[in-house]
Each structure stands twice: as structure tokens, then as C-alpha cells.
């Protein structure tokens, strides 16, 4: 069976060229030196909120890495971390970038600050891991991706779904042609982030990168890109407020991939689910695939059996598909993404998953959604 | 477990009466220990138990704290400081009354005590011989290398509640090493332990080795690995492990409680349950 993958995996946005590098692409001659292979990678954390502390524990728990410095605006958080975790602390991002003895930074601050911190860190020659989304502007994301390539520094974004075994198997199946030619893709995410009126943190402020689009829908857009490539156009979109006053709580959009159509549906004001629930369905000429973080279900039409997948429905679960990690905190994917980041730092492999360049693609689509919405409103 | 099944259970157990029904089934089958998170609905279950002391006189709770989603959502919504104020016993006014908030919370041991007391309030008057820390907190502390907190928690639970501390983890070999290092002797630990090594960091062999060589009272959870292993095969394997002390299993119907109980008794044989850790516990 042959599948014309190029037809439904467009090479890039609007005629542009993808800047992702193939796995194994090395820094080459003249690259700045890497860390000493035998010494632990020294990690700095910028932003000690929920995600920052989670990254702190995971990075420190993985073999071969050690968190030595933390930056946070809260004096209280700094004093506790200095006293009990024994790390250097900084109140300003430019201090940790210029003063701390670190090999890399993990940036977990509000999205509006990502560009300045990541740019400064790359200019200083640090490897950088940034929480998702990369920035609030495709132009800024593009310039960071270019800077990282120019400086030959490892650059990764925290789209952790790409490290979940069910989604990885779904991508493998689609790319191998198990579904034949895909015709429709549907991606959704529901969760109970904002289930009453509130306006207290950066997540509820548009100017800082809050809102369902950048905090929630970005995961689904990135995952759909991972599975079937990124759309050339956004045909229509709506960003709706339910409880929030300054940001949207639900985002819906229609994607045009050329030969394929996509639907995006997200709502973070859904209290029927306990935690974020992300599902992608792909229809193809030979079958249909439904995947979430727990389960992959594949339906194949008569005569279309593929590898160990028989005709009809086959279900496979995360228990079988997920690779183990050396330290677990809150899902293998969070550990696996940092493991991949540290591994890339050690080997100099610039073709790692979730590069700034691939995240630029997500930011580009988010921007298209905003533009399509503004045509409606 | 699929997301759909998780949704169905969420709907079913939205009402605390449904939880009580399952507890009644387990109780009537001779199971006396209930391991539970400190979710708000557990407060309602505890109210029922207090209201019917004769019916539930032998019932033992193993509270697992904190109910992490509550804190995580709050930290996302209002930040760390306000979350502490929100959940400390009696709220912020009593906390301020007891001492300067800043000075108090800069001592993380004092903060830990405040939060433990807040979580334990709903279990007033009930038997809680073991009080567990949820894996998301145990493993956060483990990763951040805040090891002395384990010893402080252990001491506080003994002194304040005349109970024993328990630690749930996904990183058992590492945790046992650290607990020994900070002087928590013969700890009660609870971890995923299953034939396929699902969420067993370090791998099955490292777990076998740790259980064999470290002095601890280990409880196996996720024995069926979210349904990936058939019950008989799963329980036969886990009952064959040297050094395992107890098994905790999820229960939703009389049929599956009875089946699991029979399998454990078949493969473990009749054994006298230790005083504080029955051979089976329903969660």
C-alpha cells in the first residue's frame, strides 16, 4: 500500500518552508561547547508556579540533571526555595540569565514574557525549554526559532502530548498509511479551568497570554499538527466568552488542509470532566482512528488490516504503549519531554521533538484563528 | 481505564450515597479498611459514618492527602499565597491570629501542620490509624530533594494523631532509599506494583529488590494496571512477591469485590492481617 504523504502533510505554512531539522542533525563544527558529558546538566527554572515547580521536581529527579537556580517574582517563594531546596534564587529573569551558573533554562512564566527571557537566554548561549505556547506572536516565535538555530542551542517547547504513547502510536499509524488517505480530522479538548466568573491570575488576562486559545486550544492545534500536519488556512473560527471577562473560554475553528478538512473544538468551562480531556479523531479512506491519552481505537475497513491491527475495531491502551520513565511525577509525558531535552543537550541533536520551529507552526495557526474570529466579531 | 469509563465512574460516584453503597458491600464482605483521598465528598461519607456508629464501628479510614486537584486548581487560579490562606484551618483570620502569616509559612513544617490539620478535620472522631501523603506530593518532595519533610510529616502524624504516616509514590525504590536516609524506620509505603511494570519507576526488578532488601510495609496498588492484566494473572503474580504486605484495590460492585478478595485469599492463603494493615482495603 502506498500513501502520498506529501499531499496531506504540507511542507509549511502559506508557501513557507519548515525550519524543523531531522532527528540526528548535529551542531557541526564551530558550535559552542556542550556540557561536560560526565557532569550533571545544571538547570535554572524561571517562574516557580505550578508548572515551574513540577519541572523543578522532574528535572531534579531525572538522572544526569540538577536544578541549581530558580527565578520568581514572589519573595516568599524565593525564601522558601533558598532555605529548603538549597538553590540560588533570583527576583528578575535577566539576573538568572546573566548571573546563574547554568547550562539551560526552563521558562515557565506567563506567555507574554517568554520572548524576552528566551531571547536573552539564547543570546547568552543557554539551551532553553519554554512552556507552551512559545510566544503570543508568530513573528516572535519565528525569530526565536531562527536565533536558536543560529546560536546552535537546543530549543524545546512544553507540548507534552507528543510524548504520550497513544498519540505517538497514532502518528506512526497515520504516517505509515494505515488509514489510507485522511479526509477529516477532529480535535477537541474540554476541562474545568474556568467554571465561574473570576479574574485573578494571568490566565484570565489577554495581555499576558491567558485565555482558552493560548492556554488550551494550543495543545490541540499542536497535537493535530503532530498527527496530520498543519493546515494551510483557517476557514472560520469563533472565540466565545462564557464566564471570563477579558478572555475567551471556548474556541471553535474549521481548518483547510487542501485535501483534508479539520474541526477544532475546545472549551475550558466544562465541569463534566475532572481534568483536561483531549481527543483526536481522524477519518481516512481505509478506516478511522480515535485517540486520547488513555486509549487508541482503530477501525479498519474490510481488506485493510494493517500490521497487528485487524479489520474492524482494535483498542490499545496507554499501559501497553507508554515507554517507562526513570522518574515519575504527574504523567510519563512530563518526564519524557525533559528527558528528551537533556538528551538533546548531551548529544547535540538539533532534530529533537517540539523545537521552536515546530511550535512556530502552532503559533501561526493560533494567529489565523484569531484573525478568522475577528472577521466574525 | 478508558476516559469514557472514568467519566461514567465520575457520574456514578458524584453522589456520596453511591460511595456509601459500595462501602456497605465491602463491609459486608469483611473488608474493614477504606483508603480514600480527602475529596470534599469524603466529608459527606464521614458524616454518615459518624451518624451510624454501630453500623460502622470497625471501619478504618486511610486518608490520602491532599486531594491534589483542589490545590492545583487553586494555585492556578489565585496563586500559592492565597491558596495557603484558603485551605489552612479556619481560614486566614485564625491563621493571622495564631501568628504572623509570613513568618509562619516561611517555616514549611509549620505550614505542613496547618494543611494536615485542615485536611484531617473531616475525619474527626473516626479511626485513621494510617495517614497517607498522595503520590503527587511525595514525588514532588522527592524530586525537589526536600527529604527532611518526610521525617517531619512522620513525626507530626505520630505526635498529633497517634497514627502512622504512609507515603504513596510512583518511585518506590528511590523513596525507600531516601526514607531510610532520613530515619523513617519500617515505613508504610503504597505504590503501583503490577506484572507489566506500569508506572513502576526503576522497573520491576528494582521493585523486587527493594521489597526484598528494605525493611518496609508495602501496599500494592494498581495491581491490574488499569485493567491491562486479567485479574487472576495479576493477583497471582503480586501475591508471589517477597516482602509485600498488603493490597489495595478499587471496587465498584459486589461481584468484583468478592472476586478480588477470593483471588487474594487463594494466592496468599489465609493469613492473619496485621493490626494496622488489613490484607485488603477498598478504595
What does it look like?
- The complex is a heterodimer of chains A (377) and B (283).
- Chain A is 34% helix and 22% strand.
- Chain A is built from eleven helices and 14 strands.
- In chain A, helix 2 (50-61) links the parallel strand 1 and strand 2 (65-71).
- In chain A, helix 7 (165-175) crosses helix 8.
- Residues 1-19 and 28-33 of chain A have low confidence and may be disordered.
- Chain B is an alpha/beta fold.
- Chain B has 13 helices and eight strands.
- Mean pLDDT of chain B is 83; it is low at 90-100 and 272-283.
- At the A-B interface, helix 2, helix 3 and helix 9 of A face helix 1, helix 4, helix 6 and helix 8 of B.
Short overview:
The complex is a heterodimer of chains A (377) and B (283). In chain A, 34% of the residues lie in helices and 22% in strands.
Note poorly predicted spans of chain B: 90-100, 272-283
Task: Report mean pLDDT of chain B, rounded to a whole number.
Answer: 83
The parts of chain A where pLDDT drops under 50 for at least 5 residues are 1-19, 28-33
Structural class of chain B: alpha/beta
Distance between the termini of chain B: 16 Å
Q: β content of chain B, as a range?
A: 5-15%
The greatest interface here is: A-B, 49 and 45 residues
Overall mean confidence score, pLDDT of chain A: 90
Number of helices of chain A: 11
What is the overall shape of chain B?
Answer: globular
- Residue share in helix of chain A: 25-40%
What string gives the helices and strands of chain A in order? HEHEHEHEHEHEHEHEEEEEEEHHH
SS summary, helix count of chain B: 13
Strand line-up in the sheet with most strands of chain B: 1-2-3-4-5-6-7-8
Amino acid at each position: 500500500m502506498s500513501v502520498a504523504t506529501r499531499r496531506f502533510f504540507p511542507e509549511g505554512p502559506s508557501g513557507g518552508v519548515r525550519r524543523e531539522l531531522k532527528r540526528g542533525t548535529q551542531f557541526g563544527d564551530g558550535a559552542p561547547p556542550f556540557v561536560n558529558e560526565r557532569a550533571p546538566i545544571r538547570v535554572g527554572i524561571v517562574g516557580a508556579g505550578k508548572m515551574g515547580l513540577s519541572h523543578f521536581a522532574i528535572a531534579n529527579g531525572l538522572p544526569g540533571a540538577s536544578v541549581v537556580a530558580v527565578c520568581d517574582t514572589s519573595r516568599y517563594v524565593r525564601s522558601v526555595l533558598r532555605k529548603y531546596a538549597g538553590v540560588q534564587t533570583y527576583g528578575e529573569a535577566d539576573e538568572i540569565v546573566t548571573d546563574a551558573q547554568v547550562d539551560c533554562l526552563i521558562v515557565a512564566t506567563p506567555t507574554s514574557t517568554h520572548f524576552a527571557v528566551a531571547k536573552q537566554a539564547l543570546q547568552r548561549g543557554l539551551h532553553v525549554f519554554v512552556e507552551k505556547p512559545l510566544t503570543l506572536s508568530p513573528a516572535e516565535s519565528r525569530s526565536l526559532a531562527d536565533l536558536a538555530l543560529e546560536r546552535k542551542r537546543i530549543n524545546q517547547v512544553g507540548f507534552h502530548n507528543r510524548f504520550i504513547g497513544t498519540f505517538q502510536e497514532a502518528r506512526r499509524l497515520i504516517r505509515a498509511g494505515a488509514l489510507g488517505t485522511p479526509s477529516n480530522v477532529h480535535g477537541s479538548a474540554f476541562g474545568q479551568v474556568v467554571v465561574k466568573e473570576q479574574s485573578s491570575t494571568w490566565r484570565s488576562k489577554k495581555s499576558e497570554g491567558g485565555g482558552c486559545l493560548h492556554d488550551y486550544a494550543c495543545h490541540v492545534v499542536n497535537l493535530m499538527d503532530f498527527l496530520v500536519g498543519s493546515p494551510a488556512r483557517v476557514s472560520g473560527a469563533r472565540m466565545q466568552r462564557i464566564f471570563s471577562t477579558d478572555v475567551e473560554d471556548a474556541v471553535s475553528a474549521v481548518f483547510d488542509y487542501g485535501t483534508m478538512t479539520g474541526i477544532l473544538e475546545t472549551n475550558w468551562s466544562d465541569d463534566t470532566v475532572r481534568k483536561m480531556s483531549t481527543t483526536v479523531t481522524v477519518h481516512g479512506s481505509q478506516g478511522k482512528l480515535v485517540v486520547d491519552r488513555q486509549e487508541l481505537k482503530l477501525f479498519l475497513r474490510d481488506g485493510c488490516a494493517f500490521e497487528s491491527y485487524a479489520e474492524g475495531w482494535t483498542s490499545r491502551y496507554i499501559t501497553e504503549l507508554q515507554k517507562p520513565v526513570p522518574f515519575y511525577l504527574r504523567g510519563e509525558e512530563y518526564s519524557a519531554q525533559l528527558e528528551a531535552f537533556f538528551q538533546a543537550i548531551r548529544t547535540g541533536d538539533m532534530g529533537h521533538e517540539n523545537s521552536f520551529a515546530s511550535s512556530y507552526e502552532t503559533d501561526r495557526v493560533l494567529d489565523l484563528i484569531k484573525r478568522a474570529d475577528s472577521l466574525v466579531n | 481505564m478508558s476516559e469514557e469509563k472514568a467519566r461514567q465512574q465520575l457520574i456514578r460516584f458524584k453522589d456520596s450515597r453511591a460511595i456509601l453503597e459500595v462501602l456497605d458491600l465491602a463491609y459486608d464482605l469483611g473488608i474493614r479498611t477504606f483508603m480514600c483521598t480527602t475529596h470534599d465528598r469524603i466529608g459527606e461519607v464521614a458524616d454518615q459514618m459518624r451518624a451510624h456508629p454501630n453500623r460502622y464501628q470497625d471501619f478504618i479510614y486511610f486518608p490520602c492527602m491532599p486531594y491534589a486537584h483542589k490545590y492545583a486548581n487553586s494555585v492556578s487560579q489565585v496563586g500559592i499565597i492565597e491558596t495557603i490562606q484558603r485551605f489552612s484551618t479556619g481560614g486566614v483570620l485564625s491563621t493571622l491570629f495564631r501568628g504572623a502569616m509570613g513568618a509562619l509559612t516561611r517555616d514549611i513544617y509549620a505550614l505542613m501542620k496547618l494543611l494536615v490539620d485542615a485536611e484531617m478535620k473531616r475525619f474527626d472522631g473516626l479511626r485513621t490509624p494510617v495517614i497517607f501523603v498522595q503520590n503527587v506530593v511525595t514525588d514532588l518532595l522527592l524530586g525537589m530533594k526536600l527529604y527532611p519533610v518526610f521525617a517531619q510529616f512522620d513525626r507530626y502524624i505520630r505526635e498529633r494523631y497517634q497514627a502512622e504516616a504512609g507515603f504513596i509514590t510512583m518511585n518506590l525504590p528511590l523513596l525507600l532509599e531516601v526514607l531510610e536516609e532520613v530515619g523513617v524506620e519500617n515505613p508504610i509505603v503504597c505504590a503501583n506494583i503490577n506484572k507489566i511494570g506500569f508506572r513502576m519507576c526503576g522497573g520491576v526488578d528494582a521493585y523486587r529488590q527493594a521489597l526484598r532488601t528494605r525493611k518496609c510495609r508495602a501496599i500494592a496498588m494498581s495491581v491490574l494496571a488499569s485493567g491491562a492484566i486479567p485479574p487472576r494473572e495479576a493477583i497471582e503474580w503480586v501475591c508471589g512477591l517477597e516482602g509485600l504486605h498488603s493490597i489495595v484495590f478499587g471496587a465498584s460492585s459486589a461481584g468484583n469485590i468478592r472476586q478480588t478478595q477470593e483471588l487474594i485469599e487463594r494466592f496468599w492463603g489465609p493469613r492473619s492481617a496485621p493490626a494496622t494493615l488489613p490484607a485488603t482495603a477498598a478504595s
